[in-house]
Structures
1.
Amino acid sequence: MNAKDAAASLYQALLTEAQQWACDDTEDQEVLNAIARAHTRHDKLALLQNSSLVPADLLSAITDALLTLDPATYSPDPAPTTLGPAMPDPELHRIRDASITVVDASSEDNTPSDVYEIQVHGISVVICRRAQWGPATNVPYVRIEDQNEGQGLLLVEVNNGGEHEHPRASPGETAA
């Protein structure tokens, strides 16, 4: 059995456990219905994580195993955003609905520091240091990417300099 199949079996066991713990009350049944309607396994797992259908220690252990066995299915975006060549051994950490991916610095591609990607609420923030940037070396670098779809607005503030608006275009439009 490969890791993806093992994760699928483990997820099914978790869902069965949740169904057994569920009461006949409306709230538990609504959670189970929402899980059944969710589009992705990640969404289904997130609904389970936010419910009280499974004891927290069991849910935490199974979630950790699912993310280890099959991060492509069970995490919102398992691939860290990298700058330049891929760096070795990213570590994915889940905190509530957020994830933090840490990629170790690599002397092979002159990466001066670790890369940290934080993903929460559909926003990806990459933080690292750039080795060469004009006359300065070892300059902090932050990239923010709004991964939500449709029209919207991203407000960004740097060093208490006031909010800057970054509109998100709807499909087919170009951002201003």
2.
Amino acid sequence: MAKAEIDLLDSISAGAKLLKTNPTCREILRWTLGRCEGSWVELSTLEAEIVELPEYNEACPEPFFVMQWLVDAGCLESIDVDESGSPVDRAAMIESGATDDDIDDVIASYAYRTTEAGSAIDASFAPSARLAALVSEHPEAREAILEVIAFLTSGHTLGEIAVYMKDFLGIDQTDMAKGWANPISIVNKLSDAGVITFVNHVWETTDEGRRLLQEEGK
């Protein structure tokens, strides 16, 4: 296997580990990969946009560190840019006689772009893929899962979800004891799948969750 292929697989593995071990900011990591797909995006632009996302919360690090995590995993590549946002060619500047201090004076920020590994990770962690995996694991729960996602388009507390599951879906305590049907369990699974999120003290269906519901005719 060529070194480039090995490096790609290593980056995909590192990216998967990053998203799996950081569920509270997984959607921010995925959003960043999608935002930087195909073009360079400057740091301040990303910072301003990330903090406005409903999924961004106190459990997430500052946006700069989100980018750095992805760079370290090989899912983003970064370049130095000047005040105009143009790339700074360090090698060319050194060749022309510039010192390290001269280069530092020119560099104003950084810009980021998603790598091949980052694109692969973004696709594999897409809510559609994760929800499909969840339904495949619990095929008997498919309709109940979709109904809960639909119920949460208006946003509800965990207690309200429990009542809905019992009174409207007819899931009794015996069913809930099976695991997937426990309100806490199903909320955690749907949150991990990226189809619901916790916003303003309630659980609410994400935009991607709503799109999946439309595809299902819900």
